[in-house]
Give the backbone structure.
Amino acid sequence: MAAGWKTIAGATFLASTLVGLTACANDSDTPANEPEQITVYNAQHESLTQEWVDEFTAESGITVNLRNGGDTELGNQIVAEGGASPADVFLTENSPAMALVENAGLFTDLDPDTLAQVPQQYRPSTGKWTGIAARSTVFVYNKDKLPQDQLPKSLLDLQDPSWKGRWAASPSGADFQAIVSALLELKGEDVTRAWLAGMKENAVAYKGNSAVMKAVNAGEVPGGIIYQYYWFGDQAKTGENSANTALHYFKNEDPGAFVSVSGGGVLGSSNKAVAAQQFLRFVTGKSGQEILQKGDSFEYAVGSNVPSNPALVPLADLQAPTVDPSKLNSQKVTQLMTEAGLL
């Protein structure tokens, strides 16, 4: 995906000249006669990030080496590597892994111009990283198994004994753990413990959001908690894994209306800081967000006033609760879910 950097030719030439001079001064590992390269630890969708990389390289001439993995896996790897990490940029699907790296003091401040491209509600208050995309929590339900008047009014309803064996989730995934992180931040530890205890009694566990959706579609379980883009992605293809289902949005600033922010940050240990900052400015810029808008990931665009894919319920209509992404605590959530017997 690409960001919109279309400026007057003279200004573009001057800016690129200054960037080049700064890069030579700061990026000492790149010999003057070799193309500049950065390394991105990528936990975002591989296909989406590859589109961003291809367009960024075409526009800037900077090569991007991708190391793909999961949110938790790569976040923990960066923390273990510390100041010796070869990563210049870290991209995630959810915020808790970003908060993990931030709390370890491993991010540098982002350029103000990059932060300015993303509204405040889609980036942390600290300015150490930024949102690059987003996804909404939803309750997917089988239309033949659950009439609309029986749908849960709140995520918290699912701990009630009446929901025993009637909803599904993927507790081992970073996606679901981000939702629990939001519940913890919004409602506190006591409420979260009680909800997780109810989940242990009531929920049917599957591995992955797609498996949850397939199970609901097949009638194995009436409903489940997933992110919205799995459903839209399947609908845009054959619909074979979602044809019998619909999505229920909790809204009303309920924890179940949580919008999870995908993050991007520059590592403080990077000696390619200029190029790394340039990459994130591109991803959150107009061209980068338009790639997201027009692609098949069905994640929400959050930067540069680019509207999201028109198939999606607009972000403004989701009535999501306000959550500072930097306060989502993956370590505490892992502890609580382990204690509840969910991990």
